[in-house]
Design brief:
single chain, Maf protein, 206 residues, 6 helices
Length: 206
């Protein structure tokens, strides 16, 4: 594998996205939005009234990318492409975010039990003048889960920083009967589409 021509900035706290970028040999530095400032968070992930899932992940990803660009300019950092992403889980048109507590995590998993839901991940690559973006959708079929299994899983720490309350790359894989789409997209960064965006921005992966 040939080294990528230059580093990028990654506007994401997700350790899964870092792992996936390393998997394809992309070098990056973190450029994160602030959670605390006098005006509150720089990027909020509140669903707007009437906003459908595809529009939601597209908007949030764009906001993350633009915020990171402004931070790069304000801090007078070297100009580099910025990669931002957002993932959401959708069941019957309803967005399932990250569960706040055990009761919410159990409720989410109970609703996913025995049915197929969608995982949407939007990815954007931002430069000074341009932005390239794509949203990838995967179908995930869950097995029927017993209450005992749901409670045992929710007693671990795995569900609580994951949209939909489960991790495809963790113990949550035990629940998944089938996937139609992108495994890495369900993790949080669809690698095929991400590589295409990086190449559009002028970076060479191989």
């Amino acid at each position: 594998m040939k080294p990528i021509d230059q580093k990028i900035y990654l506007a994401s706290k997700s350790p899964r996205r870092r792992e996936l970028l390393r998997q394809i040999g992309v070098e990056f530095e973190l450029l994160l939005p602030r959670d605390r400032s006098p005006r509150g968070p720089e990027v909020t992930e509140i669903v707007q009234p009437g906003e459908v899932a595809a529009d939601y992940v597209t908007r949030v990803t764009q906001e993350k990318a633009e915020c990171a660009k402004q931070t790069m300019l304000w801090r007078k950092l070297p100009f580099r492409p910025i990669l931002a992403a957002d993932t959401t889980v959708v069941l019957n048109g309803n967005i399932l975010g990250k569960p706040a507590d055990m009761a919410e995590a159990c409720s989410m998993l109970k609703s996913l039990s025995g049915v197929t839901h969608q995982v949407l991940t939007s990815v954007a690559v931002q430069t000074i003048d341009d932005i390239w973006q794509i949203t990838q959708t995967s179908d995930v079929e869950f097995a029927t889960l017993s209450d005992k299994t749901i409670h045992a899983y929710c007693a671990t720490q795995e569900p609580y920083d994951k949209a939909g309350g489960y991790a495809v790359q963790g113990v949550g894989a035990l629940f998944i009967r089938g996937i139609l789409g992108s495994y890495s997209g369900i993790m949080g960064l669809p690698l095929f589409e991400t590589a295409q965006l990086l190449e559009q921005a002028g970076l060479r992966i191989l």
